[in-house]
Task: inverse folding
């Protein structure tokens, strides 16, 4: 038995080209050092991804990584991480989804499922059998309905099949959304992965785990998470608008005159509403609202702030039915709502400037679904939009790149960087690109500890802390929304993990593990050609003050952001360029049994460049 309980001590590696299926042992020491989920998946990515591999190449791995808490009953722990090399950024991509898939997958008796190679024709992998699929062309939801009797299903939609660079992987209606891993799965012609395991995960002290889980569950149903259960994340939209942090019309404004129409508070009063939750979650932040489809039918869709911001204010659309229909269509097609909305919004601005013929127009809510279909099917201009905003900007040339709402190729989430400057730092330095989930620095901006309009050393310190906390939660894997239920995240997580694994973790060892996971992600980007200048924001945010609204005049001077980035690199112990020194890489390689030569490979200096980083 694996000496570290809570794990199975191996991952399953399936080569779709060669038809092999093998169990690869994982050193128990490695498991205690990178935990599970994102940490374990990044470690596997380092081992399995050949240096400089193209994200769509057959050799590129697609990794489903589980965690030590899956199956323990700890609230919000039924989650898994998907990892690979992002076709948007060319760097590390880790995306999370909540689902029974996590529990059924880990019960195969493994800590991760890794697919390499590619199928010769559209296929599905069902509990160890690779077979032709009849579901090519269908939505992930339809695939799941077809295959549900055989197990829990993770699948791609049409966008993944067509290699749209921001395609998602879906399970139980939740999405591993950011970074385009659905397109990596599509490039392998793998429509669905179906799992149904029966192997129990050994737990060191089941009674103690139950006790700690019950305590966390009690705290996670109280005031600490009430905002999620009452309104969900859509509750942010009106307050963000009032604070001047609601990105509008491709980040040209930070206040939307139509925000009231898109407010969750109003929808709650006026629309058919149902609350739900992910598997094994007692918080239940999921809110479904009714809307009228284009045919006048009534339908319902799960609503998130990020989807509404991206398909609403960012595209200048204030018609709730249109925004909700577009969000639902993204789910059906398998499109990341943030990247889809942001790429459309960028195209809208380019169209207004006369730089893109036939472009969509701001406020054209009635055509949103049509555009999403064109993107997912790569038809007409949709084919260019399917490449994401960075590649579209490069194809347009001129100064379009300064207005493309992306960092490292990944489109920005719904936080205006000029009025949230700790978040601006988090977006600039994020290894996944412009991302709010791996950084979480928005917390710092809304805290007493930092001035959100004037980022400084305090913002830097808090941004680093929030990134470390996120690395822990993403490796355990727990939902971010449960964090407020902990009095001391580090110590309480250590107690939980110790009871599950039988290994004596403490707050310090978990802090070290989290920092290691952050470094491991950074080291992957560096070995794949990431450059110091990739840590930046588009010029728009540094050159243009916010023109109107509650935050009129707010600026983020380039030098202020540069100083914060230098402070971040110092705080991480990296050099001024954000590189890990030789010794740090040697330590990482030794602690994790990785090849030091590959870790130290510096492709940028050889002119290779990270795929998404140029321009
Ligand atoms: S809090 Fe929301 S997102 Fe998190 S696990 Fe529960 S329902 Fe899912």
Result:
């Amino acid at each position: 038995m694996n000496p570290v309980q809570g794990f199975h001590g191996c991952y399953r590696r399936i080569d779709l080209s060669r038809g092999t299926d093998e169990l690869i042992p994982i050193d128990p020491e490695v498991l205690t050092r990178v935990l599970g989920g994102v940490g374990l998946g990044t470690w596997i990515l380092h081992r399995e991804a050949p240096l400089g591999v193209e994200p769509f190449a057959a050799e590129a791995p697609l990794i489903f990584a589980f965690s030590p808490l899956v199956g323990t009953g700890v609230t919000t722990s039924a989650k898994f991480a998907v990892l690979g090399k992002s076709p948007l950024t060319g760097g590390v991509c880790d995306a999370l989804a909540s689902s029974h898939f996590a529990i059924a997958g880990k019960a195969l008796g493994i800590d991760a499922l890794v697919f390499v190679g590619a199928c010769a024709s559209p296929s599905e992998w069902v509990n160890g059998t690779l077979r032709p699929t009849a579901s090519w062309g269908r939505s992930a939801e339809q695939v799941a309905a077809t295959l549900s009797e055989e197990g829990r299903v993770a699948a791609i939609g049409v966008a993944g099949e067509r290699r749209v660079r921001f395609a998602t992987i879906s399970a139980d209606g939740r999405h591993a959304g950011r970074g385009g891993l659905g397109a990596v799965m599509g490039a392998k012609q793998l429509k669905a992965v179906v799992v149904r395991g029966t192997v129990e995960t050994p737990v060191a002290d089941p009674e103690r785990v139950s006790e700690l889980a019950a305590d966390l569950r009690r705290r996670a149903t109280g005031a600490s998470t009430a905002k999620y259960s009452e309104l969900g994340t859509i509750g942010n939209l009106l307050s963000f608008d009032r604070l001047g942090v609601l990105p509008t019309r491709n980040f040209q404004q930070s206040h939307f005159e139509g925000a009231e129409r898109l407010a969750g508070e109003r929808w709650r009063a006026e629309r058919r509403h149902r609350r739900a939750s992910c598997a094994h979650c007692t918080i239940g932040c999921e809110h479904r609202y009714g809307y009228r489809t284009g045919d006048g039918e009534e339908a319902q869709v799960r609503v998130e702030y990020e989807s509404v911001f991206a398909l609403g204010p960012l595209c200048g659309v204030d018609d709730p039915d249109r925004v909700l229909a577009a969000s639902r269509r993204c789910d059906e097609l398998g499109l990341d709502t943030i990247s889809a909305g942001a790429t459309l919004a960028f195209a809208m601005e380019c169209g207004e400037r006369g730089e893109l013929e036939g472009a969509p127009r701001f406020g054209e809510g009635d055509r949103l679904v049509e555009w999403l279909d064109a993107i997912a099917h790569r038809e007409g201009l949709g084919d260019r939009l399917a490449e994401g905003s960075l590649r579209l900007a490069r194809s347009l040339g001129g100064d379009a790149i300064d207005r493309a709402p992306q960092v490292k190729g990944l489109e920005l989430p719904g936080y205006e960087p000029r009025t949230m400057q700790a978040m601006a730092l988090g977006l600039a330095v994020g290894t996944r690109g412009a991302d709010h989930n791996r950084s979480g620095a928005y917390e710092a901006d809304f805290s007493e500890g930092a001035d959100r309009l004037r980022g400084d050393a305090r913002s830097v310190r808090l941004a680093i802390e929030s990134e470390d906390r996120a690395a822990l939660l993403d490796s355990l894997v727990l939902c971010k929304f449960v964090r407020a239920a902990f009095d001391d995240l580090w110590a309480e997580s250590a107690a939980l993990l110790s009871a599950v694994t039988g290994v004596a973790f403490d707050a310090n060892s978990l802090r070290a593990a989290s920092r290691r996971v952050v470094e491991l992600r950074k080291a992957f980007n560096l070995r794949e050609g990431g450059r110091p200048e990739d840590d930046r924001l588009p010029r728009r945010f540094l050159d243009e003050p916010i023109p109107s609204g509650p935050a009129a005049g707010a600026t983020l001077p380039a030098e202020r952001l540069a100083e914060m980035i230098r402070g971040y690199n110092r705080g991480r112990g990296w050099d001024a360029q954000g590189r890990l020194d030789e010794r740090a890489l040697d330590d990482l390689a030794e602690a994790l049994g990785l090849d030091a030569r590959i870790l130290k490979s510096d492709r940028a200096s050889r002119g290779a460049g990270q795929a998404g980083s140029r321009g």
User: Anything to note?
Assistant: The pocket of iron/sulfur cluster is lined by residues 76, 98, 228, 277-278, 281, 283-286, 479, 481 (CB under 6 Å).
